Automatic annotation (TrEMBL):
<dbReference type="InterPro" id="IPR002129">
    <property type="entry name" value="PyrdxlP-dep_de-COase"/>
</dbReference>
<keyword id="KW-0210">Decarboxylase</keyword>
<keyword id="KW-0663">Pyridoxal phosphate</keyword>
<protein>
    <submittedName>
        <fullName>L-2,4-diaminobutyrate decarboxylase</fullName>
        <ecNumber>4.1.1.86</ecNumber>
    </submittedName>
</protein>
<comment type="similarity">
    <text>Belongs to the group II decarboxylase family.</text>
</comment>
<dbReference type="GO" id="GO:0033983">
    <property type="term" value="F:diaminobutyrate decarboxylase activity"/>
</dbReference>
<keyword id="KW-0456">Lyase</keyword>
<dbReference type="InterPro" id="IPR015421">
    <property type="entry name" value="PyrdxlP-dep_Trfase_major"/>
</dbReference>
<dbReference type="InterPro" id="IPR010977">
    <property type="entry name" value="Aromatic_deC"/>
</dbReference>
<dbReference type="Pfam" id="PF00282">
    <property type="entry name" value="Pyridoxal_deC"/>
</dbReference>
<dbReference type="InterPro" id="IPR015424">
    <property type="entry name" value="PyrdxlP-dep_Trfase"/>
</dbReference>
<dbReference type="InterPro" id="IPR015422">
    <property type="entry name" value="PyrdxlP-dep_Trfase_small"/>
</dbReference>
Amino acid sequence: MKHAPAPVQEAAASVLDHAAFHARRYRNGRPPLHPSADAEELRRLFDRGLPEQGRDPFDVIDDLVNAAEPGLVGNTQAGFFAWVMGGSHPAGVAADWLTSAWGQNAAIHQCSPAAATAEEVAAKWLLELLDLPRESSVGFTTGATMAGFICLAAARGEVLRRLGFDLDEAGLQDVPRVNIFISEEAHASNFAVLRYLGFGERNFVRIPTDDQGVLDHAALAAALKRETGPGIIVCQAGHINSGAFDPFEPLADLAARHGSWLHIDGAFGLWARTVPEMKAQCRGVERAHSWAVDGHKWLQVPYDSGFAIVRDADAHRRAMDITAGYLSHDAQDGRNPTHFGPELSRRARGFAVWAMLQALGRQGIAEMVRSHHQCARAIAEHLADTPGIRVENAVCLNQVVLSFHGESATGSASGHHADAVAAALNETGRFFFRTADWRGRRVLRVSVIGHATDVASAISAAEAIEAAWKKIAC
């Protein structure tokens, strides 16, 4: 359809209203949890050909909506339990809309004083909320993967600097060996970013874990005695499957004794520090040297959002700083965001973070984490006595791991039961589940993380799991 021409500013406002209409319709309705189109159909919808002439922006937005919606996943809804992905709170979405409309590049203070100051203030609040050392620096980035990259880049430079090796001057040629002491069950992103930083398998000293994925600190102590040279210890707050926490107090003691850098992957588990009765699980976290955490998980900021937090701000800045004559800086300027991350052209992520910290407040965030823990416990308790279903983890946060045992009606092996249960649940259209392989078992992973999920919806999911299993096992 064609629209009458209008002055540029009026047309721009109108197309923004048009996009907002589609966004409101999507969020206020009940969109499908699962994509309705396969890859071939989505390619057909998107690949309209590159036009010679520009098109009416209203038609473009309509075509984008028509092409995208059949391929969207409903992770903003209460029935989404597949991965640890937040649900994009409306206040964060609204702030993110404004961020796009304002069109700021948040690289340096002078590019956008508002963006730089929003990050500066939000960083201060994050340190208060997570109760981490207040002198720490915070880099606003895409998520915990890039946050880990930033933190471990600071770690690499600092442990080498302590040996008298100037990485900035010498590069990676003839660099002393750095040992990376890392859990066998560390999140895959940690191994990825370490490789991005030039570390390989010979650097990795893999530390065994218990049946919950918790790092064996006695094995780490033995490895630290055995290996020579500088070390970086990577541990986690919130195991990706079980939700378990590594023993941070003894790990911090070991790091201090051996002069090693202690980094914590706290993508979602670090938010447990906001809940007074759950904070004990994170005791000792504050003694680490760096922390990676997501904002698009329990802070419910729209994708993408993550925080690289480093106790030694100088080490952080040495690893990330970008300087040039044309990157203006005056004495009265505030914080330059590009000192703490690798992007010179980047989104103003601090606006949405600032908005969500204000919208939820300390108590709102704590209540959400507490509620999701209650949801996970409700699911586990409901299913604990169901014949053939085993809860594989001690539910300490928001994760439930389920395995299924026994002959099915079709005689299929128990290894396929989790897949069959997930398929049955997904076919209802009420839920979105995925399976995983963990410790030699095929399991159904239940992750409670979206702000829309409450105890009632969690119990509904547990009842559906039980019913699906009984039908398969009958």
